Amino acid sequence: MNFLTNEKLVIVGAAGMIGSNMAQTAAMMRLTPNLCLYDPFEKGLEGVAEELRHCGFEGLNLTFTSNIAEAFKDAKYIVSSGGAPRKEGMTREDLLKGNAQIAAELGKNIKSYCPDVKHVVIIFNPADITGLITLIESGLKPSQVTTLAALDSTRLQSELAKHFGIKQSEVTNCRTYGGHGEQMAVFASTAKVNGTPLLDLIGTDKLTNDAWAELKQRVIKGGANIIKLRGRSSFQSPAYCSIEMIRAAMGGEAFRWPAGCYVNIPGFENIMMAMETSITKDGVKFAEIKGTDAEIAELKQSYEHLKTLRDEVIAM
Ligand code: LMR
């Protein structure tokens, strides 16, 4: 079986739970033979590499290192889970202080060692801000950095499928914007439920306004719910979604999830893209984003929130 590309993919934080899951997923999806595991935690890393070898993935040329320069040399794709995870009772933003520093270093290392990288996925929290910091420090284009919108849009799809008692694949075109946290803007205007626009269902007895408001909250709090259920932060879904985004960036599934959710590559209107394309001297415009007036207003609010956070981080 062929690989999608021969270009180098680096998993940052590969000794951790999410990182090792990403590595296995990437190997199973046969993205590239050129898979490099990086983690400063040397011993754990060797263990993960050894296990992957025991899986016997055909044609895989696995390397691992605790040296960032070596890891990033010739890297074309990077996915990073290399920050502290959230614990019960914390918000994603509670992680900002420590993880902001890690994101800044990551961005600087990208600039120094692999400025020609094609795509980077950042998933450590608060993912929208850490992604933004990495973007700023690396000098990459907004379309080259993605965070966890694919996970959020899949959560929306899953919640809608549960609500209507249908298969997840019967819910399509789910989109979320505005960051991966409390300020997430969950849009209704693109999604379809069994072919019917979601907007036509909201406010009817099939999905009352109150039920829709609660459903949106379940999407926003999807990660906190996993912590409640597992006693620890999510690992399978962020690992899988981030590798799917890398696969999309490699050209495997252009722009779209197989399940019909929107992937933010490239041209996805995530908050970073919105910031790049829409800040003009006349103010902020979300020209590329289609939604109802209320949705656009919500997104503007979340943008302001992210901007404030970003300014705080820059001032640190
Ligand atoms: C998630 O949404 O599952 C991740 O961001 C982890 C978390 O702490 O919520």
From TrEMBL:
Domain Lactate/malate dehydrogenase C-terminal as annotated: residue spans: 150-311
Superkingdom, taxonomy of origin: Bacteria
Domain Lactate/malate dehydrogenase N-terminal: 8-145
Coiled-coil portions: none
Keyword Oxidoreductase: yes
Keyword Lipid metabolism applies: no
Keyword terms, alphabetized: Oxidoreductase
Family named by the database record: Belongs to the LDH/MDH superfamily. MDH type 2 family.
PANTHER family (alphabetical): MALATE DEHYDROGENASE
Name the record gives this protein: Malate dehydrogenase
